[in-house]
Amino acid sequence: TASRRKGSQHPCCCSDHLFFRWKNLIASMTVLERRKRRLQKAAWTLKNPVPKKKKPIVTGKPHPASNPTERSAPGWRKKWFTRRLHSIYNEPLEPLEIGLKTYRLMKAVVLDRISQGNGRSCTVFDAVEAIKSSTETMDSFVDDQNYSLGVAVWNIISRKEVRHMKLRYKLMAVLDEMEAKPSACDDRVSSWEEVEDVLREHLSFPEESAVEQEEITADDPIERMILRIDQDSQAKINLWIAKSQSRIQRRLMSDQASEESFMDETEKRAARLVSEELRTSEERLLQEEREAEAQERASQLLRDLTPEEQELVRNALFSPGPEDDIIAKSDTDFVTRKNMQTLQPGAWLSDEVIHFFLAMLAKRDEELCQEDSTRKRSHFFKSFFMTKLTNEGHQNPVIAGTYDYKNVKRWSKKVPGKNIFKLDKIIFPINVGEVHWVCAVAFMQDKRIQYYDSFGGDGMHYLEFIMQYIKDEHKDKNKEPLPDEEEWRLIPCERDTPRQRNGYDCGVFTCMFADFISKDC
Questions:
Q1: Strand segments (E) across 342-424
Q2: I want to staple 521 with a disulfide (CB 3.0 to 4.6 A). Which of 143, 265, 398, 516 is the partner?
Q3: Using CA atoms, how far apart are residues 342 and 353, in angstroms rounded to an integer?
Q4: Alpha carbons 244 and 161: distance in angstroms, whole number
Q5: Could you read off the pLDDT of 487-503 as tens digits, one per residue?
Q6: What's the pLDDT at 11?
Q7: What topology does CATH give the domain 327-518?
Q8: Would you list the domain boundaries of the chain?
């Protein structure tokens, strides 16, 4: 009572709830499932007969439930079940009545299947299979049978789904029997008339010219809605048939044209193959020329070490000694023996080696600018810059990987001139997830930011972080937004970027990217 006063109701007391529960249950019990249950029940009955007093066996065709004499006879279940199976398997299938709508849908489906077949034809099996696989055709057959009984398609009755299943099963049984014929896979048809002659053995088609749409003058809105839907469906079916016929006609015309120009097409194909071979050979030669030019430029940029320098390298890499020994030092940067050994083949470069190499590049850039007064300076950030800017490795997973300008706000004080917008280039070494080294470069005068990855990653999120840093830096130092923001370009890793061929040379590639780019190579 309390729940009803509040406007609520138990789901089991709701008639709509019960209806939809039974509706889904009935829909799931197909004809095949019910027959399976009958077979199981009969098998159990044969194994567990009910002991009864023997009486004269009286046979009869009515159901045993309506014949007390037969029902009381021993073995009546087995006899009735055997007779029932005989009627199921041996009773001939009567021709099914096909409505006009279903007839036109079948025709459209078959014409479409014929147009897709080789040689503008298909086997009887393919035509029947196309009808079976057409959901619209099966639904139309069920709807036609319901209309013949005066029942609307959406009229809600308790056993509507079960009746739909039975009607589908009847049509499927007829089509299966036609597919099971030995000649179904060999006989080919090329028109609807040939298919119709085959189907008429089991289906009763209407005369299309004699069937007309009956006018409904009743004021029932449901009947008017049915008529409107039928008219729309009829128009769609006619359009479908027209499109199928036009497609068949176009294919016929194209086949005729292709047969006439077959030799011309063969000659064109041969000429195209020759041109493709020539283009491939030209591209191969061009690629070889580019590689040779790149090797020549590399030989000019990278000089060979002198014997004295090679001896120093061998001592630094392989000579014994404490790991904490400082091998090289420049201002605040230094490299220990342990870090130097990461330069051996197959090893990953350490942070200290890469930072020391970038410090050497910064000194070289300073010397070049002293020699050429028109040259603008470049700045080399350490990898910690990007780690701080993106909060990488933060203990809070929500903050990790997010942009934070406050962490690097003071880093520009170490920039030459303390103004990044007067620089030529800013080079950012990036340690991606502590497993891969890449390089990003901001060309301040060209207003572009480019990503260099020896594995080919695009790195767009890093480019966006750097762009945001440039905007925040301009706003913080100049007290105004970046005026030419729309002119800046973000360029991901391009296809011609050199690629590493192993899993440990990414640090070397990052150093070489910074080396060549800082020299405007």
A1: 378-380
A2: 516
A3: 8
A4: 33
A5: 999 999 998 888 888 88
A6: 45
A7: Adenoviral Proteinase; Chain (3.40.395)
A8: 11-90, 96-258, 327-518
